[in-house]
Design brief:
Length: 488
């Protein structure tokens, strides 16, 4: 694409890529001097030029300019970056139905539920915390909501691959950093808002404001769908220009689940939708998953997909790895792996465990808290586990350059009555939980989900994944299969 087709009065220069990370090698690219929390792109112009930038889009005065490079000064670099990315990639979000899902918990589950239900009717992609998927392509995740250039590039590739729809996890940080400003959303879904990311946003008010701005900017022809039971659910859509629909359990809603029967391996409920009722049976478990399912159903139905057309599919969802994933290799106790890493997420999983575990049996929890992130929630984790669990094993969870034992001690400040131990290596913590479990006990392995890495002192380090380790530990230490050091 020619630079003069992107900027008026620019030279007739061939542009092959966009970037805001000066470390990436992008020949014949435009470098956008984006200002972040820690770094300012203006400081890395020379590195960007060495890595292929032939045009610099900037806002602050520059002391030096390379005569072989084109410089374009603008008032708002990020705004222009969004506009250029949309044009450069030929407006891919306008060529698909885009479902954006935001909230503290449930984004991955709702986006995957929508994708799995819709993909049988029209080719549908997914971008989020778990992966990037479309057609036969499955790529490792980037950020929950990727950077501007990455996001538009992925959507462009989806269009080229024949996708007609895409489900996108929309994070509060992605919203705040304007990564989605030039994405045309057809449906916006709100799941819930609880304590998280306060190290970034500072207060719940700021966190709420970031989420709300997503709905404030939905186009008039879009549809906003919100959780009527969440304390923030109605407030978050009160300034929407578009149509608003609600879902819930406790309060009347456009899509409401009533007569809910929560069981160990399935859930049955009645779905009340406008003037119709449907009996729903699903292999999804736990109350929070019913909220996730309601969100997905309402999103699809709002775009004209008949509920009857996917009702039978609700019986047998494939497990989403690391999201309330039941690990079952024949052992007589429950093992659940979940990504829960917020106070509300952990509470919801533990409430479910309390419901399915006989009173004479134990709930054993394995979890930690991320290093260099939201320190305030650590003792809250301890308080929640203290209420629901019979044994707590505190361990590593992306410690970065913090000491795992110190993090665990901060969590333990909230534990007053329940026995706990600290096992710093996560692998060993999971092994200990498996070895101490008795018949009908429940083991909860929380925080990492399906992630196959841990952020340690020197960056991202490989990790087998909680779900894989749990399976192998059960085989090895409960059933006595395999060699002693087979998976270490």
């Amino acid at each position: 694409m020619k630079l003069n087709s992107l900027f008026e009065n620019a030279p007739d220069l061939e542009i092959q890529g966009l970037m805001s990370d000066s470390r990436k090698k992008r020949p014949n690219s435009i470098f956008f001097c984006v200002k972040g929390m820690m770094n300012d792109g203006h400081r890395f112009i020379s590195q960007a030029i060495k890595n292929g930038a032939v045009c610099i889009v900037y806002s602050d005065p520059l002391e030096e300019m390379d005569p072989s490079v084109t410089y374009i000064r603008v008032k708002d670099v990020v705004k222009v970056y969004n506009q250029v990315a949309d044009i450069f990639y030929n407006s891919p979000s306008k060529k698909m139905v885009i479902f954006g899902v935001t909230g503290t918990n449930g984004k991955s589950s709702v986006t995957n539920l929508i994708k799995n239900l819709l993909n049988e009717k029209v080719p549908t992609g997914y971008i989020g915390t778990i992966s990037i998927e479309y057609g036969t392509v499955k790529l490792p995740p980037l950020l929950t909501t990727p950077e501007i250039d990455d996001l538009h590039g992925i959507l462009h590739d989806m269009v080229e691959a024949g996708m007609k729809a895409c489900t996108l996890e929309v994070s509060s940080i992605g919203i705040e950093q304007h990564r989605i400003d030039s994405i045309k959303f057809d449906v916006g879904v709100f799941t819930n808002l609880t304590h998280d990311h306060l190290d970034y946003h500072g207060t719940m008010e700021n966190y709420f404001a970031a989420k709300k701005s997503f709905f404030d900017h939905l186009p008039e022809e879009a549809i906003a769908i919100t959780n009527a039971d969440d304390p923030y659910g109605l407030a978050i859509v009160e300034d929407c220009k578009c149509k608003v629909l609600t879902y819930g359990i406790n309060k009347p809603a456009d899509y409401q689940a009533v007569d809910i029967q929560l069981q160990k391996d399935k859930t049955v409920f009645t779905l009340k939708c406008i003037d119709k009722e449907y009996r729903v049976e699903t292999n999804l478990v736990a109350l929070f998953n019913i909220y996730n399912l309601l969100a997905a159903i309402s999103a699809l139905h709002s775009k004209g997909i008949p509920i009857e057309s996917f009702l039978m599919k609700l019986n047998h969802f494939d497990q989403i790895e690391g999201r309330m994933e039941r690990i079952d290799v024949g052992q007589p106790f429950n093992v659940i792996v979940d990504f829960a890493h917020t106070p509300d997420g952990i509470k919801q999983v533990m409430e479910y465990a309390a419901r399915i575990t006989p009173k004479e049996n134990r709930i054993i929890a394995v979890f930690g808290s991320a290093g260099k992130r939201d320190f305030k929630k650590r003792p809250i984790f301890g308080e929640i586990a203290d209420k629901y669990c019979d044994m707590i094993i505190l361990t590593e969870d992306d410690p970065r350059d913090e000491n795992v034992y110190d993090i665990a001690q901060e969590i333990a400040e909230g534990i007053k009555k329940t026995n706990y131990i600290i096992i710093e290596r996560r692998f060993d913590a999971i092994r200990q939980a498996i070895e101490m479990a008795n018949e009908d006990d429940t083991i909860l392995i929380l925080g990492k989900g399906d992630e196959i890495f841990i952020y340690g002192e020197f960056g991202r380090e490989p990790y087998l994944g909680d779900h894989r380790i749990a399976k192998e530990m059960i085989k090895k230490y409960y059933f006595g299969e395999g060699e002693e050091n087979e998976i270490e």
